[in-house]
Design a protein that fits this description.
mainly alpha; transmembrane; cell membrane; transmembrane helix; L-PG_synthase/AglD
Length: 392
């Protein structure tokens, strides 16, 4: 590479690095701005009611429903991982998934728990790149079912979306959606051409496509992914119904269902803080458009947020349990463990491959704050590992 080419690319790299640093804070500020607008328009009473109305039976129902939805998600993750040739014990997967749910709920970005889950699985399986793709494909399978269900609900009852968009014409919304889809397809077609066919980007895309065909779209994979995703979605809908009844909404299920599914879909927007922000705004707009009252919709969304957080609390138990050092074992057990670990060193990632392992070596506890502080290491680790896996 010539000096002039390096000089030309240096500003672009600095801009990309600055964008990666600013985007987490930007989306957090956007979510807080949405909540501030809701407080300014609807007052604080709806928020306070959502906290006050939560009862012990509602929390117990949230924990039970959360267990069912988490088990479905764990089985979906195991299915995708095993189709990709990665081992994933059920107990380990359940603990890691709960831990990821809790970290997603308490950390701003909303996906840091999934990143940590992928890194942990990659370290144990010895293939970080494929472990990351397994997590991405698992989440993509669930989101695809949610998108279809949410789109069907919006087609059946478009008034919430129309109210949220300020009365825009359906043709304008359709044109915007088509333009966005076209831009996404053009970007996907252009990206592999940025580098030669043997480059890391092209190889990484080829590996991702191959894993998607095998782990998500394969004949022995997609029926299970579809069924488990639908079951998990039913669990989320049931939790929202519990929140609505707890908030005092007496409308029938047939009236609430077209409002709940799009609200769950809006939660996927990357401008939330632990799920808070767009969910409350859309729920208030949807309930208001349906004649149930914007304040009632906001209160329902707040109750749902509290119950969803309660459903993730087993992840806090897992987090604390892993912070406690294990008891001192006998010398023979330690020697067997050391020998087994040494025998598998050639197929496992080194300890330094996991940025979270550095927390223990530095004497830092594995807490949400320390995990969030370690996320720059996570980003560098993911990029370097994916590049190595693509090149190899």
């Amino acid at each position: 590479m010539t000096a002039s080419a390096t000089a030309v690319r240096a500003p672009a790299r600095r801009a990309a690095r600055l964008g990666r640093l600013l985007w987490p804070w930007t989306r957090t500020l956007l979510a807080l701005a949405i909540l501030a607008v809701l407080v300014q328009r609807l007052g604080t009473a709806a928020f306070l009611d959502g906290l006050r109305l939560v009862t012990v039976p509602a929390v117990a129902a949230g924990l039970g429903i959360g267990l069912l939805t988490t088990v479905c998600s764990v089985l979906r993750w195991r299915l995708v991982a095993r189709r990709l040739g990665l081992p994933l014990p059920l107990g380990t997967a359940l603990a890691d998934y709960y831990r990821a749910l809790f970290l997603n709920a308490v950390l701003p970005a909303g996906v840091l728990g999934d990143a940590e889950r992928a890194l942990r699985h990659g370290r144990s399986s010895g293939d970080l790149g494929r472990s990351v793709r397994a997590v991405v494909l698992e989440r993509a399978g669930g989101q695809a079912v949610l998108v279809v269900a949410g789109a069907a609900a919006l087609l059946a009852e478009p008034s919430p979306a129309v109210a949220l968009l300020g009365g825009l014409s359906p043709s304008a919304v359709t044109a915007a959606a088509l333009l966005s889809a076209g831009a996404l397809l053009a970007w996907a077609a252009w990206l592999p051409r940025r580098r030669p066919a043997g480059g890391a980007v092209a190889a990484g895309l080829a590996a991702a496509v191959a894993d998607a065909r095998r782990g998500l779209l394969g004949r022995d994979a997609w029926p299970g992914v579809l069924g488990l995703s639908a079951a998990a979605l039913l669990g989320h809908v049931a939790l929202f119904l519990v929140a609505a009844r707890t908030a005092g909404v007496a409308a029938p299920v047939g009236t609430l269902l077209p409002l709940i599914l799009p609200t769950l879909l809006v939660m996927a927007l990357p401008v939330n803080v632990g799920g808070w922000g767009p969910r409350e705004a859309f729920a208030a707009t949807a309930f208001g458009a349906a004649g149930l009252g914007a304040e009632q919709g906001l209160t329902t969304a707040v109750v749902y947020g509290v119950l969803a957080f309660a459903a993730s609390l087993p992840g806090a138990v897992v987090l604390l349990a892993r912070c406690v050092p294990p008891p001192v074992c006998g010398r023979a057990f330690q020697e067997r463990t050391t020998a087994r670990t040494s025998a598998n060193d050639s197929t496992r990632l080194p300890t330094a491959a996991s940025p979270f392992a550095a927390l223990a070596s530095e004497g830092l506890p594995m807490t949400p704050d320390s995990v969030y502080a370690a996320m720059p290491r996570v980003s560098r680790c993911l990029r370097s590992s994916l590049t190595r896996s693509a090149v190899s």
